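lol ok so funny story. i was supposed to be doing the assay writeup but got distracted and ended up predicting the structure for this chain instead. priorities right. anyway since i did it might as well share w the group, maybe its usefull for someone
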Amino acid sequence: MGYIDEIIGRYKSVRSIRKLNHIYTQRYALVGLGNHCVSNLLPVIQYLQLPLKYICCTSEKKAGLISQKYKGVKGTTSLQDILNDDTVSGVFVAANPHSHFHIANEVIKAGKSLFIEKPPCENERELKSLTDTVKLYGSKHIVVGLQRRFAPATQILQKRLRIGRGRHYHYRYLTGLYPEGDALLDLFIHPLDYVTFLFGKARVKAAEEMRSKDGTLTLFLMLEHQSITGMLELSTDYSWQDAQEQLSISTDKGQYVLDRMERLDFSPRHSAIWGIPLEKVFQNNATVVSLYGRNGFVPTVGNNQIVSQGFFSEIQAFADMVENRCEDNHAFCLESVKHVYSIMAEIKKYMNIIDDHIL
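and the output, tada:
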């Protein structure tokens, strides 16, 4: 037992030293202090010990309280204070979505690295303006905060999808009412971006819109990618307490089911001879392989929902880029969301056509 204890002790020591050596030296600023910032972004920033110099918000009262709540952080209502500070290398932006375009534009012009929460802007025209600004002024690093791209299950799924050719997929994204904003831009951008991230550029092959008197919106979409076609049900006609998100993908190898980024399962495809499914002849138990599942029993960082949903990795990836610890392949920059904005523009055309017919 002494030998085993020594091995375990050495492993724990190496692991601890590795974490202690992971030090960030550049300075950062955060623009916005809403619920998303406080609940999802700030805990990760604090865990990583990113040197946060400023938190910028629109409320003078909040700005005055920030320094008391977050030691060593200056509260301000002036974005210009951050832009003029040469010691600040990276800026996290998670403010009111309507202000994202303006703030992102100013941060890019200031030559600072930018992490911009979704949506970075409201339409294709604004997105082109931002990308043109990047070309004109240059930019160190830009990450658009669409966290599902960074989820652990996504990394596994991407690798697996390279093995078997995709046939079709079905995506259900169901929430409750969303009266505070644009459901397409604020909510449905998540599943739409996710399928373009996994399967590439798509066109809207068919679309159906349903609205109710109480303000719910449901979209039934058929998207055609280069090598796969999918059906999507995007709706605010359900419940926030029991919100659902499930992606099922049929491939030559079998079926993948991704449930809320929390669980990824794979079922191998059953064999058939001359079109006869052998599973109907031989009653074997169905095989389900668990590829990923968050362990709710062990309270470690890796089993935290902030990690499984991708928030942790997106912030860490941005910070590592700013610190020049990893190569920036521009996979998460503004250009990477061109396809999803193109799809949303197509969907809006369908919605306008339907509205015109109703009128």
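The CA atoms of residues 147 and 310 lie 5 Å apart. The chain is about 35% helix and 25% strand.
back to the writeup now i swear
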